Amino acid sequence: MRILGVDIGGTKTLVGVVDETGTVLAKERIETPGALGPGVNLPAILNACDSLGHTFDAVGIGCGGPLDRRTGTLLDVPNLPGWNGVCLTQVFEERFKVRAYLDNDATAAAMGEHIFGAGKGVDDMVFFTMSTGIGGGIIAGGKPYRGSADYAGEFGHHTIKTDGPECRCGSRGCLESLASGTAIARIAGERVRAGNASSLKNVTEITAEAVLHAALAGDELAREVWDEAMENMGIGVANVVSILNPSLVIIGGGVTRAGDALFEPVRAVVKKRVMKPIGELVKIVPAANGDLFGLYGAAAIALDEIRQYKEIPNVDFAGADLH
Amino acid sequence: MRILGVDIGGTKTLVGVVDETGTVLAKERIETPGALGPGVNLPAILNACDSLGHTFDAVGIGCGGPLDRRTGTLLDVPNLPGWNGVCLTQVFEERFKVRAYLDNDATAAAMGEHIFGAGKGVDDMVFFTMSTGIGGGIIAGGKPYRGSADYAGEFGHHTIKTDGPECRCGSRGCLESLASGTAIARIAGERVRAGNASSLKNVTEITAEAVLHAALAGDELAREVWDEAMENMGIGVANVVSILNPSLVIIGGGVTRAGDALFEPVRAVVKKRVMKPIGELVKIVPAANGDLFGLYGAAAIALDEIRQYKEIPNVDFAGADLH
């Protein structure tokens, strides 16, 4: 069984063919600037899939939401202007004559880690993405848990500080507003601009990476900002652990390149904040799928659906029926 | 099918016989003061079950944790000193010659609302208890979701205020420390003792109920304390909604006797804090099982297990095998 995985993003799209063992037979990352819209980007994505030069038995597509996975249609995705109403599964099914499945990228990434990555064989686990934003996915009893309307896993938009900063979602004190890559950069920038001494004054663009580097080099302001963000991330992880009692938390996304500087404080906070024995039973590890998490996730979603023989989108196409 | 439900508490125990339609055929509430221990309380509970005068096909037992539902054994339950290691399912199976099932009381209460109460037919829902503490139970896809080690649903012990008050669990800023009945009484008491003007100065014992009554009568301090607690409860509910995307939140427990004074602010906060459309899709309602939630919960747990024909405790007894 080979799956074409398609991870559509607002700036880049990753496509590749993955087999059931997790071997990537071919892959390509192409630029898909949001401003160009689906009229330009969608044909480019389809051509990239063609050019991989491999056959496949199904297509899995991961994308930021909101989307309707039952009909395979994108809704009003913030970073994909113009795609509202595009039935992606139909487009791929008509082009490649195999079944296609669409899911939220965070759920897909969680499933990718469960099938191919650090969560193999772990039935009750959660996945955090930690990059510009903070997202999440839940695996419950070995299956993606999507809640009542496929919106479960908004880990980044739960409140950890009632009177915290405003969040782009309209609430305040959300985990994302206090611990995402964007938040780390924003908080450091605010403190530098407020006149506090810091080597970050000389940095062209303050990013989370720059904050970490400055912190490791002994910059006090950067260290405080980093430590606070990790404390807050630890609290966010602790909250999800208290609510869901997973045996494993996997954290992926750009900020996790920080390695121990991230995982050590997060683990310490979880141990401190979560009731015994829940906090002691949970393992917190980096994602194994690395930069390919979107590709593995998209493939995992299709693989999971096929293995279950259910929730197949009811799309009519003149291709081989896998079932 | 008739179930004997047994809801064991640190001060009182409720036993009753419930049929599949939710009709309570008989019930009795007896005093079981924790200090007397299982040597006195357990025979009293068994006698109360006998005195109900009804036959039944299985026993469901709900109890505060920690407990091991697989073996049917209580562990070191804080308000049940001396019960550590008591295999309750074995005791009931030997006495009544039918299968017995033990579960956490919050999961049981959630399942009681799902099968008999306000959550009938709702597959993805959560249940909050709001009394001296705050507990929770999760129904995912029509089944109790217990996480990796049966500890899921610790809604009361997730942080909503990073620098909030110390909580009895060892963490700080937990929902329970800011919105439980105990917390409402404690916060009001602190402010009264700090010398602030309030009619609560004349109250013998400041309880959550006393705070609500004073608030409704126009007492400013009481009103502030109540409003803050409801804002915090709303944030706690919002967090669980963001993480799990249930279509229904049911809140039960003593504090919910406040009615609209509780549900209206909680609904408003959820609408304000949770991303659209998640926050708009969710309904927040009072528990329907009222003071019998423990009885219905215990019965529901047994009914659910029997209906699934699985996870039967492997206890040897000379009774009829239901399977």
Q: The CATH topology of the largest domain in chain A is what?
A: Nucleotidyltransferase, domain 5
Percent of residues in beta strands of chain A: 15-25%
Envelope shape of chain A: globular
- Name of the CATH first level of the largest domain in chain A: Alpha Beta
Low-confidence stretches of chain A: 310-323
Instruction: Please compute the radius of gyration of chain A using only Cα atoms.
Output: 20 Å
What is the annotated CATH architecture of the largest domain in chain A?
Answer: 2-Layer Sandwich
Spatial strand sequence of the major β-sheet of chain A: 3-2-1-4-7
What oligomeric arrangement do these chains adopt?
Answer: homodimer
CATH H-level homologous superfamily name of the largest domain in chain A: ATPase, nucleotide binding domain
| Overall pLDDT of chain A | 93
Number of domains of chain A: 2
The H/E string of chain A reads: EEEHEEEHEHEEEHHHHEHHEH
Broad structural category of chain A: alpha/beta
Written description of the protein model:
The structure is a homodimer of 323-residue chains. Mean pLDDT of chain A is 93; it is low at 310-323. In chain A, a hairpin with a 3-residue loop joins strand 1 and strand 2. Chain A has 10 helices and 12 strands. The first copy, chain A, is an alpha/beta fold. A 5-stranded mixed sheet of chain A has the order 3-2-1-4-7. Chain A has helices at 37-50, 88-96, 105-116, 176-179, 181-193, 208-216, 220-244, 260-273, 278-281, 293-308, and strands spanning 2-8, 12-19, 24-31, 58-63, 67-68, 73-74, 99-104, 125-130, 134-140, 143-145, 248-252, 283-286. Chain A folds into 2 domains: 2-110 and 291-308, Nucleotidyltransferase, domain 5; 121-287, ATPase, nucleotide binding domain (Nucleotidyltransferase, domain 5, 2-Layer Sandwich). At the A-B interface, strand 9 and helix 7 of A face strand 9 and helix 7 of B.
